[in-house]
Design a protein that fits this description.
Elements lengths: L2 H8 L8 H11 L4 H16 L2 H12 L9 H6 L3 H17 L11 H7 L6 H21 L7 H16 L12 H5 L10 H5 L4
Helix pairs in contact: 1-2, 1-7, 2-3, 3-9, 8-9
C-alpha cells in the first residue's frame, strides 16, 4: 500500500521536491522485479534533474494540452455522460468517509484515487474499485498517448504493472470502455452496483 501514494505524488502537478518520493518509489518497485526498476530509471531522472518550471511545463503539455490524457478516472471511463456524475458522487462519499484530502482536484482525480486506496477499510471494495474501474481507465490512458516516449506513459505502465501484480488473483471483471458505452444511459456506480453489472468470473 505504500507504493500507491508515491505514484500519486509523481502524478500530481509538480510543486514539491521529487527527490524523496522518487527514491522511495524506486525502492518499492524493487519488490516487483528488476525490470520495473530499470524501466523507472528514465522517469526518476526526469523528476530529479529538471527544475520545477520544466516539470510543470511537461506536466501541462501532457495532461492539459493532450485531451486523450486526462487524469480524472470517471471522465476517462464515461466521458461527460451522467454515469460520470454518479461515479463522482460516490467517490466524493468515499473520499469524505476516508478523510482523504482531495485538494482542488476532483475526487476521481488519479492521485486522489491512489491516496484513497490505503485508507479504505473494506478490502473487497478496494479490490473491486481497482480491478473494475481504475485498471481499465489506466490502460485506456496508456493506449491513447500520442508521444510514446512520454515519461508519464512509462509511469502509467509501471503503475499498471504494480496493480496487476497486486490483484492478479482477483475474480472481478474489468469495465469495458467503448464509445457506445460512454454515450449510453444508465448508471454504473462505484461502490453501489458494481457486482450487478460487472459480475465475477466463475
Amino acid at each position: 500500500m505504500k507504493t500507491y501514494p508515491l505514484f500519486a505524488q509523481l502524478f500530481s502537478y509538480p510543486t514539491l521536491d521529487f527527490v524523496r518520493p522518487t527514491a522511495e518509489l524506486c525502492t518499492e518497485l524493487a519488490h516487483y522485479g528488476t525490470g520495473a526498476v530499470d524501466d523507472f530509471l528514465s522517469v526518476a531522472e526526469h523528476f530529479t534533474t529538471n527544475d520545477s518550471a520544466s516539470l510543470q511545463e511537461y506536466y501541462i503539455s501532457t495532461f492539459d494540452v493532450n485531451a486523450s490524457c486526462y487524469l480524472d478516472i470517471g471522465y476517462v471511463l464515461f466521458g461527460e455522460e451522467s454515469k460520470r456524475g454518479q461515479f463522482l458522487l460516490n467517490m466524493n462519499s468515499e473520499q469524505l468517509k476516508a478523510k482523504n484530502d482531495c485538494g482542488k482536484e476532483f475526487a476521481d482525480h488519479l492521485p486522489n484515487m491512489l491516496t484513497l486506496l490505503p485508507k479504505l477499510e473494506d478490502n473487497l471494495f478496494r479490490e473491486e474499485l481497482v480491478v473494475t474501474m481504475i485498471m481499465p481507465a489506466l490502460r485506456h490512458m496508456y493506449d491513447n498517448f500520442r508521444n510514446k516516449d512520454n515519461k508519464y506513459q512509462i509511469l502509467l505502465s509501471l503503475l499498471i504493472r504494480v496493480l496487476e501484480a497486486d490483484y492478479r488473483d482477483s475474480e472481478f471483471k474489468t469495465y469495458k470502455i467503448n464509445q457506445r458505452e460512454i454515450e449510453s444511459t444508465g448508471v454504473y456506480s462505484c461502490g453501489m452496483d458494481f457486482t450487478k453489472l460487472s459480475g465475477k468470473k466463475h
